[in-house]
């Protein structure tokens, strides 16, 4: 029998607000332990939380970008559990009335992964194990998080990858999170179950906690799928439990079973008042949203004729896409810009992080000028590419490498004269060509191109050469 | 003149301004009476700091500067209110040695008004109790008869004020903890509207119920202190940003035409002598031109279960942070973190606190949430509506503060429920979030004070203090044995 895979994701993203969710402490990564702390975020008795408006705004932004309905009235709840890194012994979260409901992320196949809800909450501190002792660093305590929960709509590890990448992309575009999985500013909990193909009844699920890399996440899903199927095929039942993924063995191990599951005893946090919004406020926030990557992708492929693969690479990184937007504005052929980005810029910056940052010496304006020269027929592609390489190395303008004189081009008469000269000096090659060795023409072409210092149009010259040889 | 007849705060202001006494001398009087006192009202005395603050006030006086009303007045705070650098323990072993690194907003405000802090006052552990006997240092005694309890949980506050070892005090009231001890000790106690006074820095028992309130000898003094501590606080989201009350100026307003409602249910099971005293007090209001109407108020009987379910649920969560990891008491021997937390909490909390933590966990557990917590919340809404309807008809309601007068120390109750029942008259106010004030209205056969409770709609503190003050000016205190105790001015 074959089985369907059913996956739902709970993704935590850390927000890029200036301050923490309930106090005025700085929200920043990598500070000295316990330096971004105050009586409120270390939970000293008597302190009270004060909800940061920016967190609410970010949550609304995320909700709108993920096609959610924004709840006009929502509340914060307490999730009670004891752990030394949780200073109040409860996490302030949203359980009964989350701020966003019912959205979706559309995959490239057109399939929609529904978002069940998005809620706001605070992060906990961190335990630091050092020479046999355990220390607590509360810097991360009170850092604002959004938890984005999908419906169990994902049916393959590849869909899960695409969903997470899309989510990452959207969050970065709207500027609410940098979604760096390796730094922990994005983490996924994965719920996996399987069911007989076509069945509408969901199987027993297991939850893999805290995936911090997309690759490991897909591996963990594939592993769990196989494990569930094997358990069922052997006539046993899948046990509902929480798992941890072990990278070294590419397998999962149990963290706790259903019986040991925590009872979080959720209830409305009496220290915080209801969050009341109105439609006008939400519309004001909607107006601050930038164009989303899905829209840009559609525009690049449909209107500019950029191949999907290339368009995806550009849209994936907001800085790249913004660079493309600025460089291609007003050009007849934006595709040429994307070719320069993918063909030349990306050749030098290969890692995700580098592309994300997109720190290059050439400005969008400089690339724009270069492509404009091609469009105006002042330089050919070959020369443009060579020149762009030099520009990328130096950050200089195109005019620093190509003179006005060079850009005047070369007349048809001059080309004809040069072609005749070339054929007469390469008689052997001309003969070879005539006897059927078509490649021989390239040698003669090379001679002409050299003579024109690369200014000539190779296609035009080749045509002329064929004409002369055939005479 | 008796202590109770005129406000102490005004008198102290006059004495200091007229240089009849220096602030340091005054402070010394209080500190020496505290030392002599057998009331067990204080848990911490801040002698050094009090003298330092008093000297500053004296400098101000000698430089000829005008004093504010509360400036130089020696007072004290319930040990639940955070004081920067001064031990704040909620009279619990688990917080022993804990010194906050910040001031509660109420204390900050009083400090800015020039208050001289004598010390921190005894209370039931984490404000859970009605006798003050749940304190880790034993209960504060009733100045009227030290074989009787002070009431609770702000027992130390009421005892210190009644015994004249603090000019006024702050308490907190979650289910009656300001009003009931005020009633037991024959002083005035105000539980303000939820959201009228900042809770920032007040160690939480039940966050949705807790309010800080003043306890003083007279309504006038309570009014002065309330005006100083109330108002919006950025740090407390539940404090109301739209209301700024100044109650003092309206304290003498005429109350002719005042509509008083008397909810019959409040008088079930109340001592006869208490009923009589309140009936007499009500007659005083009639003579001043108020109208009286008795009415049925069946919904109020749900207040007690609603309060104990919701308050315990919040307490469970609020008290979970006391784990020995960061501050306060930590058990001596443990194998690992789990054992450390278990032993610390088992040794650090007293039995009543443990009982309420268990109760709170129970009502929040999955499977029980709907039938307890949620049901209680729904009932809370019903009670709120019933009070709204009552206040459409009446300006204020009058009830006893407590069905009994101060009981004997170490009294054995057959079960915890019996002592919870003593809160029956005070908890509805917290359940609904309205203000309530307790004023003395007589003595029982043993000479123990009786308290009358006046209730009004939200943010009606001006009206309540006005109504309470009208009664106070009419009565005398010839049976008040405490007049001769403590500091005599």
Present the secondary structure layout.
The complex is a heterodimer of chains A (471) and B (489).
Chain A: E1 3-14, H1 53-65, E2 69-70, E3 73-74, E4 77-80, E5 90-93, E6 100-106, E7 112-122, E8 126-130, E9 133-137, E10 144-150, H2 157-173, E11 186-196, E12 206-211, H3 214-233, E13 241-246, E14 251-257, E15 267-268, E16 275-276, H4 279-286, H5 293-302, H6 308-316, H7 318-328, H8 334-348, H9 352-357, H10 364-375, H11 381-394, H12 404-407, H13 412-425, H14 427-434, H15 440-451, H16 458-470
Parallel strand pairs in A: 12-13
Antiparallel strand pairs in A: 1-10, 1-11, 2-6, 3-16, 4-5, 4-15, 6-7, 7-10, 8-9, 11-12, 13-14
Helix pairs in contact in A: 2-3, 5-6, 6-8, 7-8, 7-10, 13-15, 13-16, 14-15, 15-16
Chain B: H1 8-17, H2 23-36, E1 42-45, H3 47-62, E2 74-78, H4 105-112, E3 116-121, E4 141-142, E5 145-149, H5 155-162, E6 168-173, H6 179-185, E7 188-191, E8 211-216, H7 219-229, E9 259-263, H8 272-287, E10 291-295, H9 303-318, H10 337-348, H11 351-364, H12 370-393, E11 396-400, H13 416-421, H14 427-432, E12 436-443, E13 449-455, H15 461-474
Parallel strand pairs in B: 2-3, 2-6, 9-10, 9-11
Antiparallel strand pairs in B: 1-3, 4-5, 6-8, 7-8, 7-12, 11-13, 12-13
Helix pairs in contact in B: 2-3, 5-6, 7-15, 9-11, 9-12
């Amino acid at each position: 029998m074959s089985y369907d895979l059913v996956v739902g994701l709970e993704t935590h993203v850390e927000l890029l607000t200036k301050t923490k969710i309930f106090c005025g402490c700085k929200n920043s990564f990598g500070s000295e332990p316990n330096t971004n702390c105050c009586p409120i975020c270390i939970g000293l008795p008597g302190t009270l939380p004060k909800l940061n408006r920016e967190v609410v705004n970010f949550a609304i932004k995320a909700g709108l970008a993920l096609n959610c309905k924004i709840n006009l009235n929502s509340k914060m709840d307490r999730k009670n559990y004891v752990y030394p890194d949780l200073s109040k012994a409860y996490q302030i979260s949203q359980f009964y009335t989350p701020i966003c409901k019912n959205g979706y992320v559309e995959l490239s196949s057109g399939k929609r992964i529904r978002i069940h809800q998005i809620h706001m909450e605070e992060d906990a501190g961190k335990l630091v194990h050092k020479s046999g002792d355990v220390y607590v660093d509360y810097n991360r305590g009170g850092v604002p998080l959004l938890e984005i929960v999908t419906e169990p709509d994902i049916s393959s590890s590849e869909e899960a990858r695409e969903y997470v990448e899309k989510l990452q992309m959207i969050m970065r575009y709207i500027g609410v999170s940098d979604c760096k999985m390796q730094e922990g500013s994005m983490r996924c909990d994965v719920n996996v179950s399987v069911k007989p193909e076509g069945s509408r009844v969901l199987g027993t699920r297991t939850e893999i906690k805290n995936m911090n890399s997309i690759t490991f996440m897909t591996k963990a899903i594939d592993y769990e799928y196989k494990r569930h199927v094997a358990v069922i095929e052997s006539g046993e039942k899948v046990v509902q439990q929480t798992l941890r993924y072990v990278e070294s063995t590419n397998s999962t191990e149990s963290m706790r079973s259903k019986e040991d599951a925590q009872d979080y005893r959720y209830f409305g946090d009496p220290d915080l008042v209801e969050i009341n919004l109105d439609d006008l406020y939400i519309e004001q926030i909607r107006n601050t949203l930038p164009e989303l990557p899905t829209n840009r992708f559609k525009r690049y492929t449909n209107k500019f004729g950029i191949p999907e693969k290339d368009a995806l690479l550009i849209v994936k990184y907001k800085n790249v896409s913004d660079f493309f937007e600025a460089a291609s504005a007003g050009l007849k052929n934006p595709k040429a810009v994307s070719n320069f980005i993918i063909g030349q810029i990306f050749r030098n910056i290969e890692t995700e992080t580098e592309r994300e940052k997109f720190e290059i010496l050439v400005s969008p304006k400089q690339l724009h000028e270069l492509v404009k020269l091609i469009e105006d027929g002042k330089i050919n592609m070959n020369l443009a590419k060579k020149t762009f390489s030099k520009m990328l190395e130096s950050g200089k303008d195109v005019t620093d490498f190509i003179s006005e004189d060079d850009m005047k081009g070369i007349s048809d008469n001059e080309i004809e004269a040069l072609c005749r000269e070339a054929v007469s000096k390469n008689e052997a090659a001309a003969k070879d060509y005539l006897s059927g060795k078509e490649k021989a023409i390239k040698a003669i072409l090379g001679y002409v191109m050299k003579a024109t210092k690369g200014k000539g149009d190779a296609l035009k010259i080749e045509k002329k050469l064929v004409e002369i040889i055939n005479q | 003149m008796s202590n109770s007849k005129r406000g102490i705060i005004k008198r102290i202001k006059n004495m200091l301004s007229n240089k009849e006494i220096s602030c340091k001398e005054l402070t010394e009087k209080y500190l020496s009476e505290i030392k002599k006192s057998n009331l067990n009202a204080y848990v911490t005395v801040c002698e050094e700091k009090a003298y330092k603050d008093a000297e500053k006030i004296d400098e101000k006086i000698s430089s000829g500067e005008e004093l504010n009303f509360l400036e130089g007045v020696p007072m004290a705070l319930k040990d639940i209110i955070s004081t920067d650098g001064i031990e704040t323990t909620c009279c619990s072993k688990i917080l022993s040695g804990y010194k906050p690194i910040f001031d509660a907003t109420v204390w900050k405000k009083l400090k800015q008004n020039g208050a001289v802090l004598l010390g921190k006052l005894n209370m039931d552990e984490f404000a859970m109790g009605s006798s003050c006997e749940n304190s880790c240092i034993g209960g504060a005694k009733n100045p009227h008869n030290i074989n009787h309890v002070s009431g609770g949980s702000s027992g130390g506050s009421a005892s210190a004020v009644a015994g004249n070892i603090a000019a006024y005090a702050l308490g907190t009231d979650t289910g009656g903890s300001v009003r009931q001890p005020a009633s037991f000790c024959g002083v005035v106690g105000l539980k303000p509207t939820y959201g009228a006074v900042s809770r920032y820095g007040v160690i939480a028992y039940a966050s949705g119920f807790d309010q800080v309130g003043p306890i003083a000898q007279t309504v006038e003094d309570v009014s002065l202190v309330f005006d100083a501590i109330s108002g919006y606080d950025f740090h407390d989201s539940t404090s109301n940003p739209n209301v700024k009350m100044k109650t003092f100026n309206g304290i003498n307003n005429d109350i002719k035409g005042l509509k008083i409602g008397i909810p019959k249910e409040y008088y079930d099971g109340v001592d006869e002598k208490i009923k009589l005293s309140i009936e007499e007090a009500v007659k005083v209001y009639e003579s001043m031109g108020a109208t009286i109407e008795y009415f049925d108020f069946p919904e109020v009987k749900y207040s007690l279960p609603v309060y104990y379910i919701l308050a315990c649920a919040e307490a469970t969560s609020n008290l979970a942070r006391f784990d020995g990891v960061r501050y306060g008491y930590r058990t001596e021997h443990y194998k690992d973190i789990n054992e450390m937390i278990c032993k610390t909490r088992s040794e650090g909390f007293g039995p009543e606190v443990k009982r309420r933590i268990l109760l709170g966990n129970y009502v929040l557990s999955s499977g029980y949430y709907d039938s307890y917590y949620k049901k209680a919340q729904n009932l809370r809404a019903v009670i709120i509506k019933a009070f709204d309807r009552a206040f459409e008809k009446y300006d204020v309601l009058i009830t006893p503060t407590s069905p009994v007068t101060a009981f004997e120390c170490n009294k054995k109750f057959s079960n915890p429920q019996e002592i919870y029942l003593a809160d029956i008259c005070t908890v509805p106010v917290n359940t609904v979030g309205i203000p309530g004030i307790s004023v003395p209205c007589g003595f029982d056969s043993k000479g123990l004070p009786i308290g009358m409770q006046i209730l009004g709609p939200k943010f009606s503190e001006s009206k309540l203090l006005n109504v309470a003050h009208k009664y106070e000016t009419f009565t005398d205190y010839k049976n008040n044995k405490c007049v001769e105790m403590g500091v005599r001015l």
